Amino acid sequence: MIKNEKQYWITRKKLQELYDEINLIERDEKTDPTDELTLVSLLVLKEQMEAEIGTYDQSKAEPLLLLQERSIDELPELLIEFKIQLGLTQKQFSQKIGMKEQQLQRYEAENYNSISFKNLLKILHAAGLEVTVRGTVSGANPSSARFPVH
To answer: Quick one: which of 38, 57, 89, 114 is 20 to 30 A from 107 by CA?
Structure first.
């Protein structure tokens, strides 16, 4: 997942290089089996990069449309999308949430795996995001509880 503007432009540049490499292989009249395998790999990588760029572009173009109910497992992506949709850099977002930029970079790089619950709540509160917990008991109707982050 593209996490910031710099990474976005690096990915776009790499994608252009990928297009060039694919074109070279496709124009080559020699059909070497390794070229065919390489081409398949490059095409798969191209699709992945295009999807990442598309998601980033959509996040910037359609603010707050992607911020819908999600699984807690998707919280790291949601926080990154929220930052992008607000049009904030990592530095600006870290200032908004009262955290050092380097700490935010570490959290994003590792998908928030090492964040403490206290710091997660701090980020959610500062960002203005609300957490909803929903659970089901076997055979019962779903129940939910909203916990405003304070």
So the answer is: 57
Query: Do residues 139 and 131 lie in contact, with contact meaning Cβ atoms separated by under 8 Å?
Result: no
Mean pLDDT by 10 residues, the chain (150 residues): 77 91 84 80 89 80 60 82 81 88 90 89 82 69 57
3-state SS class at 144:
strand
For residues 1 and 49, give the distance between their C-alpha atoms in angstroms, rounded to a whole number: 9
The region that residue 132 occupies, defined by phi over 0 for left and psi between -120 and 50 for alpha, beta otherwise, is: beta
Are the beta carbons of 121 and 129 closer than 8 angstroms?
A: no
Specify the pTM: 0.52
Per-residue pLDDT tens for 114-137? 999 988 888 888 877 877 777 766
